[in-house]
C-alpha cells in the first residue's frame, strides 16, 4: 500500500521544513510544532500544523494526533539543539523520542517510524565498527568529547528503538549537518564518520525512505559522497549496510537483553513477531514466548475482556 499521510515531530526544524516541502504536494503532511507562531512557516510548505510539545504533551496526545492524521509514517526529527542544558537534551532527544515510540505503538494501525539520529551513535564500550579507519576513530573520539550529553541521549533513544518490534522503524544517522545546497548524491549505509551532509540531502533521503518499508530494522548513516542518493540508498537497503551493532541485534538476535515476547493472534504483525522470536533463538537470546490466540493488539489493557489464562498456547 502506498503511503498517503505522514506526521513530522519537530515539524519546524530545518530538515523537517525541507521534508514537508518535498512531500506536501504528493501526500498529506502533518507537521507537529511547539508554537502557533510557526504556523505560517508550516503552511508555506503545504503541510498542516498541529501544536504539541514533546516536553508537555503525553504519549496519548501524540497517538491521538497520529491517528487523526491517519499517519502511515511518523518522522522524528526534533532535537533540543543543545539549548537548555543536559535536562532539556534528555527531555527532548531521549524521553521525547521514547514518548513518540510509545505513541506510535498505541496507534490503531501503528505507523512506520523514521528516526533522525546522529552519525556514530554507538555503544563505545564495545570495539569500534570494523569499517572505521584510524581517522574515523579519532573523529569519533572528538565528537563524543565535544558533545557527550547529546551523543549519550541520542544513543539511548536509538537503543530503545532497536529493541521495539511492534512497529517497523528505520534510523537515519547523518554526519554534521550543513546548510549548503543539496547535491543529490551521498554515501549511505555504513560510512565514515568524518564528513558532513547537507540538510537538503538528509530531507531527500527521508522522502525516499517514506516509500521504502524494506528499510525496516536498519540504521543507515548518510554523509557526503558521489553516488546518486536513490541508488546509494537502494544499495544500502538491499545490502543491509547497517551499523554493526544494530545488524547483530536485528539480523542475528545477538547482544539482546533477556526477553519475554507476547504475540497477539489478531495482529497483522503476528508473523513478524514470531519470526523475530525465531531469529532471537538462532542468536544467543532465548526469549520466553507467550502466544495469545484470537486477541487484538493491546489486548492486555482491555480490562476483563480477555481471560489470559484461557488464551495461552505454546
Ligand atoms: N546539527 C547537526 O550537525 C546534527 C547532526 C546529526 C543529527 N542531528 C539531528 O538532526 C535532527 C534534525 O536536525 P535539524 O537541523 O532539522 O534540527 P533543528 O532545526 O534544530 O530542529 C529541531 C526541531 O525540534 C523542535 N523541538 C525542540 N524541542 C521541542 C519540543 N519540546 N517539542 C517539540 N519540538 C521540539 C524544535 O522546535 P523549535 O523550532 O520550536 O525550536 C525544532 O523545530 C535533530 O534531531 C538533530 O539532533 C543534528
UniProtKB/TrEMBL annotation:
Transmembrane segments: none annotated. Coiled coil: none annotated. Residues 10-212 form the NAD(P)-binding domain. It holds the Pfam family NAD_binding_10. This is NAD(P)-binding protein. The lineage of its organism: Eukaryota, Fungi, Dikarya, Basidiomycota, Agaricomycotina.
Amino acid at each position: 500500500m502506498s503511503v498517503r499521510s505522514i506526521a513530522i515531530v519537530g515539524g519546524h526544524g530545518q530538515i523537517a521544513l525541507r521534508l514537508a516541502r518535498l512531500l506536501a504536494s504528493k501526500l498529506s503532511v502533518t507537521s507537529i510544532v511547539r508554537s502557533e507562531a510557526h504556523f505560517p512557516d508550516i503552511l508555506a510548505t503545504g503541510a498542516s500544523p498541529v501544536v504539541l510539545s514533546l516536553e508537555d504533551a503525553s504519549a496519548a496526545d501524540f497517538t491521538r494526533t497520529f491517528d487523526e492524521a491517519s499517519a502511515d509514517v511518523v518522522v522524528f526529527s526534533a532535537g533540543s539543539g543543545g539549548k537548555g542544558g543536559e535536562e532539556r537534551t534528555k527531555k527532548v532527544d531521549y524521553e521525547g523520542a521514547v514518548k513518540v515510540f510509545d505513541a506510535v505503538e498505541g496507534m490503531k494501525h501503528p505507523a512506520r517510524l523514521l528516526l533522525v539520529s546522529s552519525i556514530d551513535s554507538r555503544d563505545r564500550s564495545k570495539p569500534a565498527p570494523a569499517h572505521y579507519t584510524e581517522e574515523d576513530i579519532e573523529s569519533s573520539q572528538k565528537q563524543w568529547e565535544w558533545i557527550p550529553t547529546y551523543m549519550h541521549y541520542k544513543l539511548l533513544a536509538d537503543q530503545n528503538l532497536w529493541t521495539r518490534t511492534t512497529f517497523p522503524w528505520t534510523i537515519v544517522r547523518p554526519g554534521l549537518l550543513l546548510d549548503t545546497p543539496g547535491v543529490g548524491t551521498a554515501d549511505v549505509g555504513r560510512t565514515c564518520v568524518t564528513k558532513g551532509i547537507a540538510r537538503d540531502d538528509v530531507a531527500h533521503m527521508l522522502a525516499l525512505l517514506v516509500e521504502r518499508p524494506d528499510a525496516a530494522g536498519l540504521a543507515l548513516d548518510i554523509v557526503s559522497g558521489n553516488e546518486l542518493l536513490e541508488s546509494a540508498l537502494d544499495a544500502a537497503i538491499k545490502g543491509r549496510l547497517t551499523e554493526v551493532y544494530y545488524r547483530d541485534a536485528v539480523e542475528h538476535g545477538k547482544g539482546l537483553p533477556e526477553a519475554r515476547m507476547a504475540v497477539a493472534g489478531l495482529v497483522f504483525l503476528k508473523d513478524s513477531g514470531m519470526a523475530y522470536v525465531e531469529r532471537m533463538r538462532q542468536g544467543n537470546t532465548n526469549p520466553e514466548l507467550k502466544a495469545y490466540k484470537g486477541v487484538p493488539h493491546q489486548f492486555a489493557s482491555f480490562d476483563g475482556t480477555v481471560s489470559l489464562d484461557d488464551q495461552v498456547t505454546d
